[in-house]
Design brief:
By secondary structure, the protein is mostly helical. It is 69% helix and 0% strand. The longest helix has 28 residues.
Length: 140
């Protein structure tokens, strides 16, 4: 006679999910580095090569994070959306205030566009991380 263990139940915490958080943190880190690099030059015109490179790689990482998230099936999507909309609202407001500070201090043209796009990565990435972290522990 052999004893068999009952089948293990899959709990939300035990699921294997793609590394959405890790990839998105990389995108946010690149956006922050690019923003700090540019802020160090203001009010003079900053060189744009490094920040644009960081922006492109950060945007690609953010896209990969969203791509991985779109393939997750068993997930707390309702909770993800609920948390996501409020954190997105908060971080868009925060990024808007930071962007306003750059405009108020004389940023214009291409440097302003780059800094705004870096802020978009920040404003979308942080809510993605928070929402994914909450959603992963919720049952569908």
């Amino acid at each position: 006679m052999t004893a068999q263990a009952p089948p293990a139940e899959t709990t939300p915490a035990s699921r294997v999910l793609p590394p959405v958080v890790e990839v998105t943190v990389g995108a946010i880190a690149l956006a922050i580095v690019g923003g700090i690099y540019m802020a160090g030059y203001f009010p003079r015109r900053p060189p744009l090569g490094v920040p644009i490179g960081l922006l492109v790689v950060g945007a690609a990482l953010l896209g990969v994070g969203f791509g991985m998230l779109s393939r997750v099936e068993d997930f707390g999507w309702r909770t993800f959306r609920l948390v996501g909309k409020w954190t997105l609202a908060a971080y868009v407001l925060q990024a808007g205030m930071i962007g306003y500070a750059f405009v108020h201090n004389g940023a214009s043209g291409a440097p302003l566009v780059v800094i705004i796009l870096l802020l978009v990565i920040f404003a979308v990435g942080v809510p993605l991380i928070i929402s994914f972290t909450v959603g992963r522990y919720q049952a569908e």
